[in-house]
Fold this protein.
Amino acid sequence: MRQYQKRVPIFVLWLLTGANILNCIFWNVRIIEMTENQILYTFSSAAQIIGALLGLTIAGYSIADTKLKDLQERDETSQEYIKELRNDSFHLIWRIALSGAVVIGLCLIVLSCYDKWPRILLFLTSEVGPLFLYALLLTICLVYSLRPDALQDKRAQERKNIEESYPQNSAVEDKVPLGVF
């Protein structure tokens, strides 16, 4: 299930990118027409928002990771769960940083070439939106995975998996122990 959740958004991004490339090459359909000022304000704001979000997310992650590391040292019973939680959050923060850097880079390219190459501008302006939303979605996933009761949820899920892997044997309960009449 976990691998499926990681691959679906990336597959959707690749699908949108492919449709965007086809649109730029063959059809040149523009859904939204933007003036020069709108392009400048929109993409500079998007780059600033992603930059601020990235900075706040990394700061929050460092605090949460430090607390998880302290908890891991104190509580020996949940070391595996905390290790898995820290690993998952590290991979999420890495993906957030990468997608944020791509969005900021694309925004800066749009700002630098908005009046020179209209087909490239059409492609880039159409790409920034889904990537921006992807970065926001990853940030929401990170915040959700580091919520206060995430550790208890991991323990409950592990307990449920263990209970499901061992079938209940009702025949043993019906039998009378030896020596009891």
